[in-house]
Request: fold
Amino acid sequence: MQRLYRGVVFRGDIYRKVVYLTFDDGPVPDVTPQLLDILHEKRVPATFFMVGENAERYPDLLHRVLAEGHRVGNHTYNHQRGTKYSVIEYIANVVKADKVLGGTRLFRPPYGRLTKDQKETLLAQGYTIVLWDVLTHDYNAKYSPEKILRIVQKYVRNGSIINFHDSVKSGERTLSVIPQVIDWLRSQGYVFECLSI
Reply:
């Protein structure tokens, strides 16, 4: 496992009290606009790992995310699980998403899974592969907003990359908990940044 994930980013700047909120699987009109409203109100930048077909379907949301100062990353064109595809098929799917997303070099594999050859090919092509060190499980209906908040409180540390989702599946939980997460992190002295790696 260590060899597979060598070269992959799990945390940002560990020398400052900074955290990076990230959102996967959007943009979708049922969740992303409300999430952007919250981030705007709280003055928090974030990084959105977008599924290419969603961004293509809702270009106004892609443009709004960028216009409001957030960063966009690639989450494949149609949320492909890397271990089910050849290197050629997988990279082609990533490149297809790039054409929609404007050529971002940040990449997060769906489900956090990809093969060693896929990883090495992406790194060789100049992508920065970003995972996370705090997984909130907001996509899981068994996790209440209170439990999600406790996960963040327990595991956050300097440079934490916190994984949320702006999908229909997770939307209600994410929108409910994100203001609490932001307020608690601020109360602990954390500042928020987009991923800049």
Q: What stands out?
A: The first helix runs from residue 32 to 42. The longest strand covers residues 18-24. Residues 18-192 form a domain with the TIM Barrel fold (CATH 3.20.20.370). The chain has one domain: 18-192.
